[in-house]
Specification:
The chain is an all-alpha fold and 98 residues long. Helix content is 70%, strand content 0%. Helix 1 packs antiparallel against helix 2 and helix 4 packs across helix 5. The longest helix has 20 residues. It is globular.
């Protein structure tokens, strides 16, 4: 089961790398294709019973638990190097529905 997951994850990474290295004209539909790849990967993970607990993000969950969303975003950016928009979206997704 782990070997299958590793192979699938390697395939997803290879596909994403190929998309990112493609010329701009070919990237127009890249977001749609990436979303479809992510959807299919999630289906495989669900079928195999694999639970992705996400990356270890020091401080992010602790700040969210205290209701400190801005500090959580800052901690996420420090841990991942993500831009502000990406970090905000990720932290909001981690926080779940309000």
């Amino acid at each position: 089961m782990e070997a299958t997951l590793v192979i699938l994850l390697a395939l997803v990474v290879a596909l994403l790398a190929a998309q990112l290295s493609a010329p701009t004209a070919r990237r127009d539909g890249a977001a749609v294709r990436i979303a479809e790849i992510e959807r299919r990967l999630q289906l495989v993970m669900d079928h195999l019973g694999v639970v992705d607990e996400g990356p270890a993000l020091p401080g992010v969950r602790e700040h969210l638990a205290r209701g400190e969303k801005i500090k959580a975003i800052k901690a996420y950016r420090a841990a991942t190097g993500a831009d502000l928009k990406t970090a905000k979206e990720a932290v909001e997704a981690m926080a779940g529905p309000r």
